[in-house]
Amino acid sequence: MKFGKEFTSQMVHEWQEAYMDYNYLKNLLKDLLDFKKKNAPLSEVAATPEGSLKRRISMYRAFSGLQSRYTSFKGSSGNNNNNNHEDEVILVNTVQQEGSQGHHQTMFLMSSEEGGEYEMIFFKRLDDEFNKVITFYKKKVEEVKDEADELSKQMDALIALRIMVDKPSIGMPSDQVMMDDDSTLSPGSVVPTHIRSPGGSHMEAIQEVEMTGEEILEEESTSGNREKEKRNLMRFRPAPIEILDNVKINIDPATPISTLKNVIRTSKANLKFSKDELKKAEEQMKTALVEFYKKLRLLKSYRLLNVLAFSKIMKKYDKTTSRKASKSYSDMLDKSDLGNSDEANKLIERVEVTFVKHFVNGNRRKGMKHLRPQAKRETHRVTFFMGLFSGCSIALVAAIVVAIRAQHLLEHKDRDKYMNNIFPLYSLFGYIVLHMLMYGANVYYWKRFRVNYPFIFGFKQGTELGYKQVFLLASGLSVLALAASLFHLDMDMDPKTGSYETVKELIPLVLLFVILLITFCPLNILYRSSRFFFLRTSWHCLCAPLYKVTLPDFILADQLTSQVQAIRSLQFYVCYYVWGNFKTRSNTCQDSEVYKILYIVVAIIPFWSRFIQCLRRLFEEKDSMQGLNSLKYFSTIVALVTRTLYDQKRGTFWKVMAASTSGITTIANTYWDLVIDWGLLQRNSKNPWLRDKLLVPHKIVYFVAIVLDIILRLVWMQLVLDIKDLSFLHEKAFLAVVACLEILRRGIWNFFRLENEHLNNVGKYRASKSVPLPFNYDEDKSM
Fold it and tell me: For 178-195, what is each residue's pLDDT tens digit?
């Protein structure tokens, strides 16, 4: 792989604009090379093999002897120095500007030569790129230093809280630690080496590891380990518990009940020195250190990759111009903050040992698994079973089609009974499989176009599912559903199975029970981490607004708004197996008023969840756009209610209400999709009617997506226009087709929604998530 492609592939996605523009500088060198070729002397151009004329002339030169030539070369050191001085090509200086940091400026000393203006332009652009990179790097270094200071203060409070809660028996002489009646440390305790003073430098709060931690980790297996521990214990001094006087707990609500309590009281509670508080604080600190460690590794990768890129481009310059400028530039690079900075490395080492020391009881292997989780290896087994299940699904679909055609089931007298009672039960699994297939396709294209979907969704590193795993689950579920429906159909056609009426009708219910059992299975099988992430996010959606709204929460709620028909199918399961006589496929629950009311209520649940989520974000973030978004979802709820009432009651009034509300919400939702969620239709952008930055190289894809979104949004009008009254298609089948079209539209929406979110992160250089810290320092008391 060429370095340019490797350089791009290893970039931090969200920092792309801050990297050295290697391809642009390489194109400048190509222009320089083209100029040199066009203006090369005629004799050089006419030579058949390149350089052959020069070699032919050298063959007629006098031979000076091997030894004499070597001796003369060794003895001409002074001339070499002169030549080196004469061969200087560039001079790199640091120019100080008033009110700003110094920037590097390269002076090209051969500008008078032919083509020198091309080389001057190259070095000017090279300086611009270098100054851009080093400015960004310095800014990020200052950010991590500030964050390290904050983490140091948090560690101060955490260690003091541990002492207050655990009340440890440290085993030190009484003149060093005195325990009073309340088992608290005396105010005379001295700050240990691992706790810094408030004015200390960054991360000094965890520098205990430099004195004792590394020795313990390195000498665990040696015979003198106990003596070392004794000496370290004698030097140990506990943390000052007075820190807790200026600290309040800052733990986010973990349950709806705690949220309600905090709304009634306050979001910042005083410390009660309970084990529950300590456990939550430790979990938050672990998460904060893991994210901080990830940020440090990204910064380290950024520095090394840019240093390598500058080195590569200078070597390419030397090769293009036959000069020797890379040595001078490399010397400047090594002396710069980009070349010799080790701030990130030091912090990485300190975080590693701190995490191992304070959170995994000195087990380095376990600690590094938390800090550097390994991505799961893709195995051929996944590909094999995905192909196997996909082939089986196609074969089962073909078998069902053949059975329907062979038995003339479309003209059967019990066709309506089957479509009204059995078809809705199995269509539920079709909606789920189609949505999973769309998500798998999204994952494939997100990965192809370098959309950082694991970071956006907040997946735990190494647990996100790839498109093959998603397709494997989808194809496996389709095999179960299709096999069950074919078995059910076969029992319907076979007169010998008449005595098994109850068993036959319970097949869909058993299948649903199996799927729910797999979904809620606590065993570490079938991607437990992803299943629990889905369940936790679904619970947050149902309990909105009692949980803080995160991106996975409202993205999943948006997915559920496209699964209204699937939710109604779940309601029909209750109707079919509880209220009616499922053995004879006769039920009257659909005609009851209670069912009709619930038919509306269950459909508006996902839209209500999004409406409440928008209101909470409006109050917390003070973002007026969230208020407009909530109005959009409220209008959708009104349209859904009026459309359903029109379908149940008919009449001119309800038709006018359904048409007007559906028309308004269709226009509002379409505009929001294209302009807000996708960021498109910007008239003055670099790409007319799209946006400035696009990940897909073919612009036609965006215009096709816009047209499809508009067309598929018009499906909202299908009930009002009575398009479903088609003779060749059953009403239930038409509703299933409409539901599938909405799922397809949602799949298209997902790709461009996350692309826009990714580009927003890129624009803000946001490559790591912000993690809430457990403690809040009361600055007024601490001053």
Answer: 333 333 333 333 333 333
